């Protein structure tokens, strides 16, 4: 199954139609959507490719008028991007263990997911049917939103996309007119914390990526991101996952972009959750999650000293401090703090404007909480 966000998944199922064999230009590739193929895209427009982090720890994403998208249809928040590109201060190891977990992952409490279907969304039955599919095969409970603060709203768009995990407040699942019930099941998977199968850390044991066949504007959608978080890649690689790309995805010349190790091609399915998908979704919520640190405050003495304090988290053995100085840092820095709920560093007052800090808790088993940004008292 696939990588999770707080551990994520992806997994098996059946096949689906692939797009035509015709030569695919950049515009045509993005039309996997309009031919009802399995590849989901936030928009048929090309967007702007941006690189976050540095050469050691970089992340290439597509920006659509301020919305930042990973792998075609996964919408990331600013905080998620910061934490996914963080590296430990004083280390050349690149992305640190469990950094991805601290980043991308809020689970829906008690597996209850409040939702709203926007009144202007056409064919609302694809949403209700997709929800019924999830409820019939997993122990997630989708409830129509009343006053809940955190919820999903299904809204009309020109593509298919979703945030990853629960981000807090209202979050969207975007559905274009050509997004099917199967595409909706896929996007709900992202909202619960599931990633794509083809970029999991162990994918090279199961598939070949044919880089020369990938459209130049989509190469970054095939980059392998190893966030090293506990349970990030669960189970065996799953060709049947509803989160899997087909061999034809983003082809620039009609030749396969992904093949099995023996060179054979495969289709992808958007029909139902596989047994692996189901197991992966269950695993996400069975893992122990620490509480997010509360009371995170950053205070500057007006001279050269910055002090960050927070409330202790039950079960935490250490805390991870992420810092980012826009315009100075090419990637966030990570500091590990043990047996303390405060951290002090030198920071000249002229540099404090724009300086940002997050704190996450971590236990001895390697489980990491969601990171919380500090409130600043400058």
UniProtKB/TrEMBL annotation:
GO biological process per UniProt: proteolysis
Signal peptide (residue range): 1-22
PROSITE patterns: ASTACIN, PROKAR_LIPOPROTEIN
Residue span(s) of domain Peptidase M12A: 101-288
Gene Ontology molecular function terms on file: metalloendopeptidase activity; zinc ion binding
Cofactor binding, per record: Binds 1 zinc ion per subunit.
Sites where the protein binds Zn(2+): 186, 190, 196
Obligatory cofactor(s): Zn(2+)
UniProt entry tagged with the keyword Hydrolase: yes
Pfam families: Astacin
Gene3D superfamilies: Collagenase (Catalytic Domain)
Active site as annotated: 187
Keywords: Hydrolase, Metal-binding, Metalloprotease, Protease, Signal, Zinc
Name of the molecule in the record: M12 family metallopeptidase
Originating species: Fulvivirga marina
